[in-house]
Design brief:
heterodimer, A: Nucleotidyltransferase, domain 5, 2 domains, globular, B: Rossmann fold, 4-stranded parallel sheet, 8 strands
């Protein structure tokens, strides 16, 4: 029988979907979350149907995760993004590791031991040290996130002292006003997030290896800066943004495979 | 979803019902002393013929009012307590003839100075630690001073016999509370942590210690029966121990959330648990010494050092067959926030018990984040 295990990870910014057939990944795509997780969940359903996957069929099992997980009304089960990122991250790393997930709204440090999540730490209710911070600052500078990283690579960081995104934004505005180099401002912005994430990670665990997942893992520059700050290797993976969706799909396979036929 | 008794009264219902009872007491000429903390030797209040009533703030409503004069970045419990007094929205504060407080943490003792402007507030000088002979001696002295203050403020005379009688009564109440807490040791537990937290916080609105004892004993007997009939031999949900700051102000956001997410809170290693009840006041000693000794043993993080808290945790872990510990720290509570590092290391390194740290306030702004952390923690305990 051709089983499909679907992992749907609706984050605050992007909704990631991945399909696993029990042996290999057969499909994956990302959609913007937009303003309604419910609509996003519907769009995912439509897109899956277009590739011949019916979420309502009996041999298709779906686990939803992420901040919009409860909006996926066709999901067979929901799990938190912590458990799913742990599972997915460890799978990308082929074993136990510490996962740093910098998401749109929060940052998580997750330790996987013996294949399961042993402990985790999340940032407090504040957007400094998350993808949101980079997004806001990039907007302020009139560039997109990709361009911000490109600029940052060529600059020398101007320190941002504020811990709060709102105040940091005014700092950036005054730096722009003072005619500082765009590259240096961009480097300062990236460095500020790197410091916050590294501080959170160092409060948590001191592992052999880290893997960076989430939206910021696409850019090698961020991982490189983070590795420097932590004094440790920080790996990335081309499927890094799908870590949560992959974990959800793998957990769906685990969970629903244990049923009668086994 | 929670296993609550049929006649269960929510905190706000019980608090409201107490208003009328208190009004009647006042009309009969009874004196009332507003109190805040487990360090309060309520035996002396009872010996003075007065009733103690808990004024500890658990609501976020009066906080904006408090923030007119208190810093925003302060513990919500302190802001809430002061706010409900200052905004004149707490009938219990209104009915209190005086306020009895202790110099526990920095935030509280400075707030009490401001509260004193509203109503006579006596602050007992609690020693910052237990070491050295002077700690106990000065705390003993504070007991003697409190006797004089109560006599003067309430126009009464306190005899040794009055205190001894109050000590015996309070010891019986402690015993009843401990018996009630012990139900949480049963596996699976028939007693919801939400109920424990509510009963302990609302007991203070009953005013009649004998009535409190009777109600606790009755509920304990009921729960034992409920266990034998409906729980014994059944599978248990993950068993959680709560530690850290007072949790009355986050009863809905955290306590209820944990149990509705699929775990049982079996005990509290905080001031709504056995922390202040675990040992009795020695009624064979001079009563002032006995009270001083007992109340200096309370394991709050304001004490430095505070090894007794780790010992209490260790004991509760095994007695209550705990699967995971959740520490609740209220925003800007330095002593518990700092001590959490020690607690975390003890639990995760020495005891290999999963530990979750939740820092929060009384607002609803972090409900989503808190609930994700709780669910993720329970997924760990369930072995995902």
């Amino acid at each position: 029988m051709n089983n499909n295990y679907i992992g749907i990870d609706i984050g605050s910014t992007a909704a990631k979907t991945l399909v696993f057939d029990g042996e290999k990944v057969v499909a994956f795509f990302v959609l913007p979350t937009g303003w309604s997780s419910k609509e996003t969940a519907e769009r995912i359903k439509v897109q899956l149907a277009a590739s011949g996957i019916d979420v309502d069929s009996a041999d298709t099992k779906t686990i939803a995760t992420g901040y919009g997980r409860i909006s996926v009304d066709y999901a067979d089960s929901v799990l938190t993004e912590i458990t799913c990122h742990g599972k997915g991250g460890a799978s990308l790393m082929d074993g136990d590791c510490v996962i740093i997930d910098v998401g749109g709204q929060d940052t998580k440090i997750i330790t996987v031991e013996k294949g399961i999540v042993a402990r985790f730490l999340m940032n407090d209710k504040c957007s400094a040290g998350t993808g949101k911070f980079i997004e806001i600052m990039a907007n302020r500078m009139g560039v997109d996130i990709e361009e911000l990283f490109t600029l940052a690579q060529a600059g020398t960081p101007i320190p941002i002292s504020s811990m709060c995104t709102v105040f940091a934004e005014s700092e950036v505005i005054s730096q722009i006003g003072a005619g500082k180099e765009k590259e240096d401002i961009a480097a300062g912005i990236v460095e500020s997030v790197v410091s916050r994430v590294a501080l959170l990670a160092s409060r948590h665990d001191t592992p052999d290896k880290y893997i960076l997942t989430g939206g910021l893992s696409i850019n090698p520059f961020f991982a490189a800066r983070l590795a420097k700050k932590l004094g440790q290797d920080v790996f990335t993976h081309e499927m890094g943004i799908y870590a949560g969706a992959l974990g959800a799909a793998l957990l769906a396979a685990d969970k629903f495979n244990k049923l009668p036929q086994a | 979803m929670l296993n609550l008794p049929e006649n269960f009264q929510s905190y706000s219902e019980a608090r409201q019902q107490g208003f009328m009872r208190m009004k009647e007491l006042k009309e009969k000429g009874k004196k009332v002393v507003g109190v805040f903390c487990t360090y309060t030797p309520s035996e002396l209040v009872l010996a003075a013929g007065a009733v103690p009533v808990g004024l500890c703030g658990v609501s976020d409503e009066p906080i904006p009012y408090a923030e007119k004069s208190l810093p925003k970045n302060l513990c919500p419990l302190i802001k809430s307590s002061y706010g409900s007094a200052a905004s004149d929205t707490c009938p219990y504060f209104y009915f209190s003839d005086m306020i009895l407080a202790e110099s526990t943490c920095d935030g509280k003792k400075k707030m009490y100075e401001m509260m004193h402007e509203l109503k006579y507030t006596h602050v007992m000088q609690l020693p910052p630690g237990r070491s050295g002979e002077m700690a106990l001696a000065s705390w003993h002295n504070e007991m003697l001073r409190l006797k004089e203050v109560l006599e003067e403020q309430l126009g009464t005379v306190i005899t040794d016999e009055d205190i001894k009688e109050a000590i015996r009564l309070k010891n019986r109440e402690r015993k009843a509370m401990l018996d009630f807490f012990e139900i949480g040791k049963l596996k699976p537990s028939p007693l919801s942590g939400y109920e424990i937290s509510t009963i302990i916080d609302t007991n203070s609105f009953l005013f009649d210690t004998e009535e409190k004892i009777a109600l606790l004993n009755e509920r304990t007997a009921q729960l034992k029966e409920d266990y034998a009939r409906n729980f014994a031999g059944r599978p248990s949900r993950p068993r959680i121990l709560i530690t850290g700051c007072p949790s009355g102000g986050v009863r809905e956001k955290i306590i209820r959330q944990i149990e509705e997410s699929g775990a049982d809170i079996v005990g509290f290693e905080n001031c709504c648990g056995p922390r202040a009840q675990i040992d009795m006041v020695d009624d064979s000693l001079d009563p002032y010494w006995a009270l001083a000794e007992k109340y200096l043993r309370v394991n709050c993080s304001v004490m430095s050092p505070n090894p007794g808290r780790i010992e209490a945790l260790e004991e509760m872990l095994s007695d209550y067959q705990v699967d995971g510990v959740i520490e609740i720290v209220l925003q800007a509570c330095h002593t518990f926030a700092i001590e959490s590092d020690r607690v975390k290391k003890f639990l995760t390194t020495e005891k290999n018990i999963p530990y979750l740290y939740l820092e929060t306030d009384y607002s609803q702004t972090d409900t989503g984040q808190i609930s994700t952390r709780i669910s993720a923690f329970l997924e760990i305990l369930q072995g995902y």
